[in-house]
Amino acid sequence: MVETLAEHVAAVGHEMEQYRGGGKVADYIPALAQVDAKRFGLCVLTCEGETAQYGDSWMPFSIQSISKVFTLTMALNRLGEDLWKRVGREPSGSRFNSIVQLENEAGVPRNPLINAGAIVTTDAVLAGRTIQEGIDDIRNTFRTLADDKTIDFDPQVARSEAETGFRNYSLANFMRGFDNLNSEVEDVLQVYFHQCAIRITCKQLARAGLFLANQGVDPLSGNRIISESATRRINAVMLTCGHYDASGEFAFQVGLPGKSGVGGGILTVVPGRAAIAVWSPGLNEYGNSQVGTMALERLATRMGWSIF
Amino acid sequence: MVETLAEHVAAVGHEMEQYRGGGKVADYIPALAQVDAKRFGLCVLTCEGETAQYGDSWMPFSIQSISKVFTLTMALNRLGEDLWKRVGREPSGSRFNSIVQLENEAGVPRNPLINAGAIVTTDAVLAGRTIQEGIDDIRNTFRTLADDKTIDFDPQVARSEAETGFRNYSLANFMRGFDNLNSEVEDVLQVYFHQCAIRITCKQLARAGLFLANQGVDPLSGNRIISESATRRINAVMLTCGHYDASGEFAFQVGLPGKSGVGGGILTVVPGRAAIAVWSPGLNEYGNSQVGTMALERLATRMGWSIF
Amino acid sequence: MVETLAEHVAAVGHEMEQYRGGGKVADYIPALAQVDAKRFGLCVLTCEGETAQYGDSWMPFSIQSISKVFTLTMALNRLGEDLWKRVGREPSGSRFNSIVQLENEAGVPRNPLINAGAIVTTDAVLAGRTIQEGIDDIRNTFRTLADDKTIDFDPQVARSEAETGFRNYSLANFMRGFDNLNSEVEDVLQVYFHQCAIRITCKQLARAGLFLANQGVDPLSGNRIISESATRRINAVMLTCGHYDASGEFAFQVGLPGKSGVGGGILTVVPGRAAIAVWSPGLNEYGNSQVGTMALERLATRMGWSIF
Amino acid sequence: MVETLAEHVAAVGHEMEQYRGGGKVADYIPALAQVDAKRFGLCVLTCEGETAQYGDSWMPFSIQSISKVFTLTMALNRLGEDLWKRVGREPSGSRFNSIVQLENEAGVPRNPLINAGAIVTTDAVLAGRTIQEGIDDIRNTFRTLADDKTIDFDPQVARSEAETGFRNYSLANFMRGFDNLNSEVEDVLQVYFHQCAIRITCKQLARAGLFLANQGVDPLSGNRIISESATRRINAVMLTCGHYDASGEFAFQVGLPGKSGVGGGILTVVPGRAAIAVWSPGLNEYGNSQVGTMALERLATRMGWSIF
Questions:
Q1: In terms of Cα–Cα distance, which of D125, D106, D85, D57 is closest to D264?
Q2: If you average pLDDT over residues B246-265, what whole number do you get?
Q3: Cα–Cα dist D196/D191, whole Å
Q4: Could you tell me the fold of the domain covering A5-61+201-303?
Q5: Given Cys at both, which of B54, D104, D260, D281 links B13, Cβ 3.0 to 4.6 Å?
Q6: Residue D94 has pLDDT above 80, yes or no
């Protein structure tokens, strides 16, 4: 008897029940530290529009670094291939906020999915506009992609990020010193902190990322979001760089392009088939959702969705 | 009108004619330096057994680092998951022969596709056997996989590698100091230098690597070479780590798991479909075949074979 | 016939005439770039009060990093041995503005004579006071030590430093993220940029540094500036760390504790005997005054003043 | 009442009695691990020939890295200034056996007092001679300098060093790959391991190093060992680089050029006055004799011998 997608998702969800609460919740800002460690949500959305959800997939969480994929998409649409003069596409082999590589490589971040790289893509999104215009563009992009006007920033998170973001100020000033930022450090970071502070549910996130599974066209609206070749490249960067210094591990275990955030979410793309969003706040030693990664590994195996 | 595989391969081959001789031939040992820069060969072998070739696909070249994929396969079959205690699976973010990372990470190489990592997998292949037994096992593995008894080492290349291999001696002694080699440095390196010195044609190489495109089973013989999950993991490691510090670039451009060698060859896997071997001796700035990479990018695009 | 100090200084000065204009003048801020490359001044002041001068020793130049020695003295007087919990005393083996070491060592700079370390000592000088109080204290310290009320900041230099000091903002934010700064980044840097912007002549500089040659007591006023043991330690740090990644070179060639600045000045201490200040704007490849270093080497040899 | 040198030495020795046994004895080879941790010897020899000893100053210990100073002296006498093309004179800012810096700086060690640098100076000593001639030259140098024909190698230590010296094999092969060794790796290391294996007493060591306190002339025999300027430079290198990544610390605390070894010995030079040898096997966290460093700090303070 063949199981349906809904049955597979439910089965994985049930298997995860015993692991709820595993890992360590990020605590560098209060808004993240207060989240209930036992939350677990999972949502799969196929290119045909089939949805399967489990658990807390309806509950908003802080998107954090997952937003870097969307900022990259926006920056590529604005700058095209020129973006790659300002940011690389190689795995960094280092922590998400490392500055060592920047010094050795003249202020050009290794890839757009580490903090330094996302500050560059944010600068590209901001270019020639006011902070408010940049912030609004990001919010509207999420609302359009997820087809949901309720998506918004968590102002408290954005403020906390700014107040504790010394490392990001350090990275931004460092790159500014190499002329790799065009706007003022403070302006770029205000927009950067906002893009980290989007509140989103698993369901909304899977919807927003679905175009990545369909060669750049949102299959439900029919809108082209970005070119086919750029889509492939975003997916390639997600696979090689999406999980900081555990990117190889994620490729090894799950076998799909993905991007994690310290809020405990992971967006995963099954090229040609579906987008998956999972959320569980406890992080493993590499800063990726512990239960979320486990769920993705099992789901990918069950569905035969590994790209390898 | 739909083009056949043979037509696509021929078309890509013709497009490459104008680029023949591009890049810089490796010259650190005489046997490599003497190769004609204008050679170009391409062979695609599908899981159904369909073959399409172009140019010098019949001509043997030095396998060099591509052999690391096969040594990894052999080591996984001998040690299983325990291998991963001795070698990681993360991109290194460094040159193929870097020793910096080893010092910072206590003698455990980042992945099995950089030199240090392949010395560890070679040690695993050698364990408990004589040098000759280790060497014979490697030769027999290639002969069996490629179904061709003529495959052999180039003794001159193996000797040259040993004579100029100071960096590899350095890496091996470094790891031995951390107890990450079980056999004597000299013994491990003798076997290591031999696995680099296999002479192989594009046609043989595509045949030898076909099991990687078919979940670990050689589709033409029906023999299981390695488990399905291990196969996926080898492919994942190839994608994230197969081209040294240009691994992200290859994933970005070609979108397929692959492994290059300084002899100018590249083995590429199209999961579920085919193995591709390409050879052109001129290397780009990262040490990967310049014309070979270009051919793979075009072929992958034509066939729609990117995994992303 | 024994030459007098004045004769030795004159002889070295004359030898330097042919080299005037050698090296490359710092040009990262306009105020430095406009300085005449051919300037050369030299002043020796002995503990007995004997002065010997040559050339442009009467002309003010920008003190730049030489001020770090005085900020260190002030910080030691404020914090005592506790200062060494926040900054090390080892050579860095890196460029003056490197951030790599900071990341590897949890935000504790290697020594107080690189930029990061001097930002920490500036923070110690500022602690509990307003920016203006901190700035005034530094100006007064120089005026008192040099016994010259005319010493002042160059406001244009201070402003230029602030406008182009992205790397210093990066370093300061980085350390703030490790809680190794107590005041706000902006406040500490305003004071830091001012201490770099002191305008001083060779004669004033030798006078201000004389206490370092006399175990912490200004031999001309009789005032104790700092303890004997702290003085020795400041001199030791100058010897091992005073010239960035060419500190060993300076110890090797000159054999005396010294501190250079990108304005082209060098303060050198002859323990028990004298302070030497030299100035020539052209810098060598390590960022130290080219002609100034040469003059010091010859003077130290002539006088037999090497401590080795 | 003025104390004599003998009284100062005795006083320091008595103060050290309570600390005997402190620190951790090196245990990477059996011959070192078996040494009694409670040993403590001290010998001061002035340029006038006055000797003052305390404790186990008559007992031979393994010279280990202290020999690097003598190998440097021999290499400078053979190659002159050309030596500095092959090895630098800057502090490394790294562990004694680090290979990271070598990779970043093309196989040129930072200074001759870290392992890599001493392998280069050993290669210079060996050049054009057999292993036995090189070894004999080193032994004879020590015998001549110390005026004692009984000084010899400990063959067991030399053998153990060779058997466990993987890191040194790694360093040597690494540099050979950059053409910075002229002899075969195995030959250079045989000589290197022997120079580490000299057995020497505090009394012999102070005698052997006395020329460094007297501008290159052995004051007791009147023989010139090396030029005056080279002597100053050896002392400068000892001060900036003599204690690995705690060189700044030693300069800060003791204020004299010195070189330590993992056998627990330290040779210290008081320019113009005396040589001091101290021995106590327990090492501090940086690999330098814990009680020996303390004794030197106190003796230097008592005698007013700091060069700062």
A1: D57
A2: 94
A3: 9
A4: Beta-lactamase (3.40.710)
A5: B54
A6: no
Q: Which residues of A touch B94 (CB under 8 A)?
A: 93
Q: Pick from A276, A281, A282: which is nearest to A297 by CA? A: A276
- Among the options D44, D244, D247, D269, which is catalytic? D244
Domains D5-61+201-303 and D65-198 share a fold: yes
| Confidence (pTM) | 0.93
The answer to whether A239 faces chain B, any CB pair under 8 Å, is yes
Kindly provide the ipTM of the predicted complex, given to two decimals.
0.93
d(C-alpha D251, C-alpha C247), whole Å: 13
Positive or negative, the CA dihedral A118, A120, A122, A125 is: negative
Place of tokens 């920008």: C62
pLDDT digits (tens, 9 = 90+) for A135-185: 999 999 999 999 999 999 999 999 999 888 999 999 999 999 999 999 999
The mean pLDDT of C252-280, rounded to a whole number, is 97
Cβ of C99 under 8 Å from any chain A Cβ?
yes
Contact of A138 with chain B, judged by CB distance below 8 Å, is answered with no
Which residues, 6 or more positions from B139, have their beta carbon under 8 angstroms from its beta carbon?
A: B151, B152, B153, B198
Of the CATH numbers 3.40.630.10, 3.90.180.10, 3.40.710.10, 3.40.50.1370, which one belongs to the domain with range B65-198?
3.40.710.10
Span A266-278, mean pLDDT?
98
A237 has a chain B CB within 8 A of its CB: yes
Q: Does C93 touch chain D (CB under 8 A)?
A: yes
Domain locations along chain C: 5-62+201-303, 65-198
Q: Tell me, what amino acid is at A304?
A: G
Q: What is the CATH number of domain C5-62+201-303?
A: 3.40.710.10
For residue A100, list chain C residues with Cβ-Cβ distance below 8 A: 99-100, 103-104
For residue C108, give how far its alpha carbon lies from the nearest alpha carbon of chain A (Å): 15
Order of all β-strands in the sheet with B61-62: B61-62, B198-200, B152-153
pLDDT band of D72, cuts 50, 70, 90? very high
Domain B5-60+201-303: give its CATH code: 3.40.710.10
Q: Which residues of D touch B172 (CB under 8 A)?
A: 170
Chains that touch C (3 or more CB pairs under 8 A): A, D
